[in-house]
Amino acid sequence: MSLDSLKSRLPHYAPDLRRNLDAVFGRPRLTAQQLWGTVLATAIASRSPVVLRELAPEARANLSPQAYTAAKSAAAVMAVNNVFHRTRHLLSDPGYGDLRTGLRMNVLGDPGVARVDFELWSLAVSAINACGACLDAHERVLRKAGVDRETVQEAFRIASVIQAVGVTLDAEAVLTDIE
């Protein structure tokens, strides 16, 4: 199983990451589609080839073709939105907020899966990409849809674990080459 492969690759100094991976997959608060869509979207957003290679096949096996595509779409559209909206937010001139974005985001209108699932995936990717404006927007939509804070937190908890695993494994590959 590729999750086991990821855990076995983690260095001795990162036992908490193994435990956190076990916790994410061992007692999920999310439906299977929400969990695996979040895993796939955040594996893409982590930019870690190792993590994506190991987790994408499991995500494909656990998601419908539509959900698999929607999770990839969430990662793609948030890659654009997070940079754009984070930059708008960070600029001192609030006038940028009044300008038309000029970005195509048609997938947001019909993501091909339940809106709540797509919003969870978008929120998780926004957590990795550190876009406060997008995090706030997706959290508001989720809360308005009746999603509780614990479920919202589960999405960004998954994001934090997947990101940490990617950072650690990618760094370890480089360190192994130079040590």
From TrEMBL:
Keywords annotated in UniProt: Antioxidant, Disulfide bond, Oxidoreductase, Peroxidase, Redox-active center
Enzyme class: oxidoreductase
Enzyme Commission no: 1.11.1.28
Domain Carboxymuconolactone decarboxylase-like: residue ranges: 94-176
Disulfide cross-links: C131-C134
Active-site residues annotated for this sequence: C131 (proton donor), C134 (cysteine sulfenic acid (-soh) intermediate)
InterPro entries: AhpD, AhpD-like, AhpD_core, CMD-like
Gene3D superfamilies in the cross-refs: AhpD-like (1.20.1290.10)
Catalytic activity: N(6)-[(R)-dihydrolipoyl]-L-lysyl-[lipoyl-carrier protein] + a hydroperoxide = N(6)-[(R)-lipoyl]-L-lysyl-[lipoyl-carrier protein] + an alcohol + H2O
Signal peptide residues on this chain, from the entry's feature table: none
PANTHER family: ALKYL HYDROPEROXIDE REDUCTASE AHPD (PTHR33930)
Family under the similarity heading: Belongs to the AhpD family.
Task performed by this protein: Antioxidant protein with alkyl hydroperoxidase activity. Required for the reduction of the AhpC active site cysteine residues and for the regeneration of the AhpC enzyme activity.
Subunit structure: Homotrimer.
Protein name in UniProt: Alkyl hydroperoxide reductase AhpD
Organism: Streptomyces nigra
Gene encoding the protein: ahpD
